[in-house]
TrEMBL record:
Matching Gene3D superfamilies: Spore Coat Polysaccharide Biosynthesis Protein SpsA, Chain A
Protein name: Nucleotidyltransferase family protein
Domain Nucleotidyl transferase per the UniProt entry, residue ranges: 12-238
Coiled coil: none
InterPro entries according to UniProt: Mannose-1P_guanyltransferase, NTP_transferase_dom, Nucleotide-diphossugar_trans
Entries under PANTHER family matching the protein: SUGAR-1-PHOSPHATE GUANYL TRANSFERASE
Species, as recorded: Streptomyces endophytica
Origin superkingdom: Bacteria
Length: 242
């Protein structure tokens, strides 16, 4: 079956329950996904929902935890581009358990679904990732990013002569970008409590049922973990608008 002959996912889960301790004081009174990107007037979760809607998603389940009421109040008053349901973890379930719990509220449990971490700000064609996932007959596909190393590096020759200084070069390694495509059956493979990256993904990798989709060249991706990330995101946004 070719990519043109299958339907793309129209439902997604967003994990938004983290405390964001490294983003304090921004997260003292709000959950991490409710932190605003400077210069946009919109929280991280708002950018995510807009992106998901642009990519054909009609229904999102948001898994809440820390200061869930702040996020729910924003959702109640925001003009949302899609239908949103929230679920609240009454006890920490881990990322895998949180995904499984939230997936139980997806409107179409027999269809594939996207998932994303609530602290990711990105733009890339999700439908292309879904086609990649389908072509490889994978149970799960994770987006792969190549972040920039946050320090300047020194290039030397074999003899030890310094050849060059390179500021914030791309990492030689790919990392999990925190965006996923899952088959309908994947929900049953998730742990009730625990981390899917340690409990589910390794087994799927051994069985060659886990795929990795490299983000397209030039695609925007940033994890918002620290105040510096907020500053850098604002600079990047300003550069894009020039």
């Amino acid at each position: 079956m070719t990519g043109a002959q299958h339907s793309y996912p129209t439902q997604a889960v967003v994990l938004a329950g983290g405390q964001g301790s490294r983003l304090r004081p921004y997260t003292d009174d709000r959950p991490k996904p409710m932190v605003e990107i400077p210069g946009t007037g919109t929280p991280i979760i708002g950018h995510q929902l807009d992106w998901l809607a642009e990519e054909g998603v009609t229904d999102v389940v948001i898994s809440c935890g820390h200061l869930a009421e702040v996020l729910q109040e924003w959702l109640d008053h925001a003009q949302l581009p899609l239908r949103v349901t929230t679920v609240i973890e009454t006890e920490p379930l881990g990322r895998g358990g949180g995904l499984k719990y939230a997936a139980g509220s997806l409107p179409r449990p027999d269809e594939p679904w996207y998932a994303t971490n609530g602290d990711i700000w990105t733009r890339f064609p999700l439908r292309e990732m879904a086609a990649f996932h389908h072509e490889r007959d994978a149970e799960a596909t994770l987006a792969l990013a190549r972040p920039r190393i946050p320090w300047g590096v020194v290039e030397t020759d074999a003899f030890g002569h310094v050849l060059d200084f390179i500021e914030a070069p791309p990492s030689p390694y790919l990392i999990n970008a925190g965006v996923y495509v899952f088959s309908a059956a994947f929900t049953g493979l998730l742990p009730v409590r625990g981390d899917h990256e340690r409990m589910t993904f390794p087994r799927l990798a051994r069985e060659r049922r886990l795929a990795g989709y490299p983000l397209p060249h030039g695609a925007y991706w940033r994890a918002i973990d620290t105040a510096k990330d907020l500053t850098e995101a604002a600079k990047e946004l300003s550069a894009q608008r020039r």
